[in-house]
Structures are given as C-alpha cells and as structure tokens.
Request: fold
Amino acid sequence: MTSVNEVVRQVQLRLSQAKIDSPAAEAAMIISHVVGVSRGKLGVMQALGEHLDSATVERIVDLVDQRAKRIPLQHLTGETTFYGVDLKIEPGVFIPRVETEVLVETTLEHFADTTGELKILDLCTGSGAIAAALADQFGRRSVPTRIWAVELDPTAAELARHNTRDYNVTVLCADATKTAAVIGADPELATLLGTFDAVVSNPPYIPTATPVTQTEAEQDPSLALYGGSSDGLAVPLRVVDQAARWLAPHGFFMMEHDHTHAAELAAMMRQSSTWHKVHTIRDLTDTDRFVSALRAE
Ligand SMILES: C[S@@+](CC[C@H](N)C(=O)[O-])C[C@H]1O[C@@H](n2cnc3c(N)ncnc32)[C@H](O)[C@@H]1O
Reply:
C-alpha cells in the first residue's frame, strides 16, 4: 500500500522531469482516472491520508510512463471535457482544443436572446465536440435546437455519433466541402439549403508548408490538421463557400483558422457581397484565430 499523497508527489515529479506542461493537473487527471474517482474526491482521499493498493499504483505508473513518451493524455484516459461536456476520445480522431471553446462561446452570445428553434450546421465535426457543446448549452437554455454535424472520416463520424447521442444531432459521414455529398448523406437537407441559422466550423487549416512539430499534435490525423494547400487555405475557403449556401439571410457564420489566414480571409469576405459584419476574433492566447460574419440578404 502506498499513500495517495506519495503517489501524487511521485507522479508530479515524473511528469515534470518529462517536461509535461501542467504536471500537477495531469497527475491529478491520471490518478483520478485510474482510481475511478473525481478530482475533488481525489483531494478528499489525500486529505484523509488514504492509501492505494500495489495493482492500482502499477496501473498509474504504466500510464505515467506512456505520458512521459508524450502520448496525449486524452488517448490514455480515452476522454476529455469540452465546454463542460464529457467526450469519448480515440486515437486517430482529432483531440478538441480548449481554444475552440471561444467559437462555442461566441455562437452562444450571438443567439443570447433567441428563444425560437435553431438549425445549426457543424462542418468538419471530428469528435462532435462543437455540436455536442452547442446542443448541451442551448438545451440548458431551453432553446429548441437541431444540429447536423458533417465529418469525412468514418471513424471520427462514428465517435461523433457516440458523443452526441443524448442530443438532437444528426451526424453525417460526408465531404463537408461538397453540397451534393452532404445532401446525398441526408436527402432532407435538400429542402434546407439557405435556411440555417448558423454554420460553425473548425476545419483543417494548417499550411502544408509548415507541418506541426509538437509531438502530441503529430498524433492527430493529417486529414484533421492540414488545410489542403501550402498556405492551408484551400479547405477553409471551401467551407466559407459552403456556409454561404446553407445559411439563411442574416445567418451566423464562425470558423476557426490559422493565425496567418486572418487578414486574407477577413478582407476576402468583406469584399464579397455575400457577407456583412465580418470580424476577426482572438483566441485565449490573444492570437487571431476565428472569423465570424453574417450572411447578407
Ligand atoms: C481540426 S479537426 C476539428 C474537429 C472538431 N471540429 C473540433 O473542433 O474538435 C478537423 C476535422 O475535419 C475533418 N475533415 C477534413 N476534411 C473534411 C471534409 N472535406 N469534410 C468533412 N470533414 C473533414 C477531419 O477529419 C477532422 O475531424
């Protein structure tokens, strides 16, 4: 038997030696995951001086060893939390990032006074994080909401189905940059072109000219990362084009993008008669990360 306090201390030390960014937070996440308790309950166990048996400690050591090799924590625990929603995570599917919560927050603010039914399209949904978070929040506000979430990769689409199973979300496995493909996946959508209240998207956008180097990010699939051209704008531009087709007049659009895209995307959308009220929005690190706009009449 080893005291919980000693296990916490050893795990934190090992994670700091491995140069993991937030060793205390990650130690608590790994230990509470293995023990099967909340982080709050883990704190109570520490305060009460409780102990863990050797099999549990071995399982913790095994996960910490893997984390030290920079396997993403979410792949080790199989879960993450995005905007308060617990999501299942699997290797091979993009891990939702905390910065994307700004997209959810801004969309909720835009519809803060809305009580009528909303139709929302989430293009490139990955694990279904944005769709699940919006459905959850609008549900808490008693705003009836129907969301379609489109994802090209079948493994990610299946995971998105699982993560949105408690909400009014339809996940379609299709190319989100092709209207016909999306309608092919759900023929009902043919009648809904030009009627959506919001289109949101965090598409792949990294320029192929500057591939990622951070070891954890390398574990995300290329399809989720790279924007299809050396400047990374090919897929995002197609998403903007699709958003214009799906949105109703005055419908809300918001898309995450690479910081190098901010000026070009905003200028292009301002020059187009399709959009108005175009804004560049920053993420939590003060980096230009999103464009939002309203569909013109
Ligand atoms: C950056 S990830 C974002 C996932 C999710 N929206 C999030 O914020 O966590 C981009 C996702 O788009 C998907 N994707 C790439 N190209 C696509 C396409 N043409 N149509 C639909 N999905 C696509 C990838 O498989 C990946 O799941």
In short: The two ends are 69 Å apart (CA to CA).
